[in-house]
Design a protein that fits this description.
six-stranded mixed β-sheet; four-stranded antiparallel β-sheet; 11 helices; 13 strands; 22% strand; globular
Amino acid sequence: MGEGETKIKEMLLDKFAELFGDADGVKVYFAPGRVNLIGEHTDYNGGHVFPCALTIGTYAAARKRADKKLRFYSTNFEEIGVMESDVEDLKASKEAGWTNYPKGVMWAFSLRGMQMEKGLDMVIYGNIPNGSGLSSSASLEVLTGYLLRDLYGFSVTNVELAQIGQYSENNFNGCNCGIMDQFASAMGKKDNAIFLNTADLSYEYAPLALEGAKIIVTNSKVKHNLVDSKYNERRSECEQALKELQTVVNIDGLGDLTEEQFEANQSVIADDIRRKRAKHAVYENQRTLRAVEALKNNELALFGKLMNESHISLRDDYEVSCEEIDVLVEEAWKVEGVIGSRITGGGFGGCTVSLVKDEAVAEFQEKVGAAYRERFDIQADFYVVEIGDGPRTL
């Protein structure tokens, strides 16, 4: 535990004692956020993704209660105060705000026969920038599952924690996300990205030995409120295109097709927009396979080129980018020493991820930041990220 983390732990324990009387027997937990290097909007199309866990994420101080009460407090939303609920009353509601995420996980555990007989008190703190698209919701879901397992002795693996998190977000919170975010948080490994086949959850760790380069996440600080609605819309467009393709090819998901197979059969997709969506899913999956191979062969330039192509496809075929993000990416491409840059996450705002040579890091931040400010009068935030482990007890 580094110095910063020791301070976070102390802050959480102090806050817990202040709110709930004392901090005797309280345990402190962490689960990371994630950034996806390549393979965007492929995770619900039976394709491959290539995310890694970050060293930023969500922390919780938690303790079991003797009754059935649930009390939640977030230091990120202090104005809301303590939110109360009950283990017998796990229903999603607008009033419950952010607590719908932990409550959804508790609900999903109960569906698997893991009932919480007793409630708990929980104080959380997150250092993932809000609305950045670095998966604060998945981080909170995995964190909740991890602490429930520890406090109640539930028997679940980390992969199951990811599945429970995804299930609760789909069915309790109503966002039709794929498995990638929760999987990256639950299965993170320091200095490694996770090469995950979302069709069968087979995965391997790929060491990120980025000699002479850094991963930089740039936060646009814009979040267009299209994310959930458009996300679900893209998902159904892909499902429809898949059904049309299945009339001529034997596949379970769009990720099963090569580019050649797609080109040969795409005419069965009756609608131009659906055809573009499916094209992105197929091509992005193949790009991801090639990118992982490039990394293994230490071909960083090729990896970067594939990142750039990924952005263009997300912008033009999948249409999940936005003007602010496009400017951040295009300005990044102009800087010598930028190996690759693209949008990351669900889209319509959030962040870009860039691979930048060490000697160009300062210039990248300066030039991209200035151009963005000039265009939108917004101060972008830059994070030189480190790749961390999955969830743990502090």
